[in-house]
Amino acid sequence: MSDALKAKVAELFNEPGCDKNLAKGEKERKKGCSKPLTPGAAAGGCAFDGAKIALQPITDVVHLVHGPLACEGNGWDNRHAASSGPQLYRLGVTTDLSQMDIVMGTGEKRLYKAIREVISRYAPPAVFVYATCVPALIGDDIVAVCAHATSRLGTPCIPVNAPGFVGSKNLGNKLAGEALLDHVIGTMEPETSTVFDINILGEYNLSGELWQVRPLFDALGIRVHACMTGDARYREVASAHRSRVNMMVCSTALINIARKMEERWGIPYFEGSFYGIGDTSAALRSVARLLVARGAPADLIERTEALVTAEEARAWARIAPYRQRLTGKRVLLYTGGVKSWSIVSALQEVGMVVVGTSVRKSTENDKQKIKDLMGGDAHMVDSIPPREMYAQLRRGDADILLSGGRTQFVALKARVPWLDINQERHQAYAGYDGMVTLVRELDRALSNPVWADVRRPAPWEQGDTEDWLDDNVPRLVPVAREG
Stretch 441-463: mean pLDDT, rounded? Predict the structure, then answer.
């Protein structure tokens, strides 16, 4: 690891915006937030994976991975981040380092040629270059190569120095944020700037969730100037320093961007959520209040209240047919980060009972919000071994499991409904419309008649087996052969 990268990692481990980090001693702080992996358990993403998924939703740039082919193959489109325009971000581009490149030390030359080729072929506004373990270990300097390519070719080449061995996926998210702060944000000016401009940080437009909340801001005359990084364009991110307010959606990922933008350009930020009716309304009110404090017309607050009242009434009317069936249903929520409390709030709004929630990647602030929602005796777990989760579901402690794809088979084996709530999902659950979609999907999963069938004892387990065989299985009657 280079000295510059070591210094950057040490800086990220000392994040003033993270209460959990500040509560640690100096020795513990240097270790970061990653935990030792359990042998045989799913390891999760590395720092490279975290950086790639944080930046890949910038849709009009080329994302070039400097390393062996497998790094790009395993890290491509891990999030279903949607685009309303350019599709260049979905192009998998890699230098495909070979053993010969490593032995002969030609990795940097290969990288420069790759940058030159993608600029010549696609003419992107920028090229994001990602370091991986192999070139980092052999000493390839992607920062120097990117600087040289930028000066020679005239296209910004952004080094994202987050090789996998540096740490966890969460650290990779933050290193991606540092790349934006060091090389992108503040490098361009917006074509127009208004007192209604905001940025949304930590929103990746999973399955089109940004498109569910953007119309709400449009109705108020508020412009989402830049979303970092869902459905983003390079120029929007580069000129994001002229916005008036930052909204943090996932603080564990890009808190460093919010804090440093406040330090450098005086942009206030707050953490909010678009999951659930109440949280969506609270987010809209917070944005309006901060914009008014920074010079927007005072009637924005009144118009926001009118919009919230109308949208809440419309959402509750659409949810009403499902509420009676969902009230009292018990949910085991196994996710992390901002969803550990924001989804709890959304579920409670329709009368569901959350019997437990995981707090993986959750901050102390997240945990406090869970306690506020579920009470002081809230059942919070960091991780649940599959065997224990299976036993819990088989006992009937929960009626449905909300989690990511890794644990879906535990629920299916326990014959319990499961709904994907993590980043791999194909449904959008943000805003008022997203809440209606979530409620509909929950009802669809719980009401599916297949669960009654799979839980029913097999016919041969009911009563006398011989009687069942006599009634249902044709008997072979021996027939005497003639002659």
Answer: 84
